[in-house]
Structures are given as C-alpha cells and as structure tokens.
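Handoff note, outgoing to incoming analyst
You'll be picking up this chain. Sequence as last confirmed:
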Amino acid sequence: MRLSDILSWGHVVHHVMSGMVILREDGTIDKINDRLLSIISHWGLLPDVQLQGLSVFELRPELFGRPSFSTFCHDIYLPAIHSILRGDEHSFRMEHQIQLQQSIAWYLFEIHALTRGPQSTSHGAILSFTDITEFKNRETELRYALGHVCVLPEHIPICAVCKHVRSAGHWDPVESYLESKLPVHFTHDICPACIRRLYPRYSSILDHASSAEEE
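Most recent structure output, in case you need it:
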C-alpha cells in the first residue's frame, strides 16, 4: 500500500462525523480518532488524560463528570464490550442521553467485533459514538404533532344559511370549530366575488388587475 493511501485513509478516519475507537483483544485502546476526542472533551474529560494505550475497562466513567453516563457504562456498555471481545456477540447498539451543563445530548453507541479467519474469531472491536441529538429532537416534535392530530367525523352538521357548525350542542363559526379540532389558525381576507357584491364601486380595480395579469 502506498504511503499516500495510508495518509488519505487516516485523514478520512479523523474527519468522519462519528467518534471511533479501535480496541485490541484485551480491551486496550489502540486507535482513537479526533472526532471522539472532541466529543469526550465536550463531555468534560480533562485535556491531559491520555486514552491511547489504556484499557477501556480501567477507565472510570466518573472522569467525564456525567453521573448518567457512569451508570450506563457500568451496567450496559462495558458488559457489552466484554461480551463482544469474548466472542459471545458480534455487535451492540443503543441510544443513550447524556446530561450536559445546559442541555441534553443523545448518542448512538455501537460496538462491532473485528473478526478474521473462517471461524470469525474476535481480534478486537471498533466502538463508534454518533451524536443523534438533532434527530431525536425531530422525533420528539413528530411524536408531539402526531399526538395532536384529530380525525374529523365523517359527517359534520353545518347550517345551510350561516355556515355555523353544531358541536356538543353549540353552534360555532366553522373557523372556530376547525381551530378547536386541528392545529390551524385562520386569517381573514376577502375574495373578488364578495368585493364585487359588497363593494361594487371598487370592482373596476379588480377589472384592471385582471387585464394587467393577462397582458
């Protein structure tokens, strides 16, 4: 492999959107990309802590200053890494939220075994950390919107004269009825036909506008 190819690959790894770690068979951190260093710095890890060469099992999650992340690591994440390095499982993925100083961030944590040979023997693992906060926020907004969708009845009793709608024994303007059932708000305008009927003296303005549009 050419040196230029190696440098290009390293450049790509350090600029992907996900934080990445490569573990050896014993859990020692072999490689870590710049994106993950940026992520864990944002979590609160001190800049003088050197991760490369350390065992992931010896890292105290308390170093990150996030109690919720510590519980997640002890109870879920580290046991999953153990299982994959032993060859019991081949992959793991889970979404987890981390409380930051003034906000909540969501991350997708993934672990994949690095295998080789016909028996797919595990020779380490690759860990990835992807910030999915934006997607989780959109998911929350969508769930809220869907939870407030109202299905209108098939038949709605409406007055043939004033167009008021009967609902729960009351007669309300159609705008009020729809605003009470749907996430909509009406603004008022006046159509050309009503202008001609109610304000005939101004109908010539409509005629001039129509002529200008045709030209």
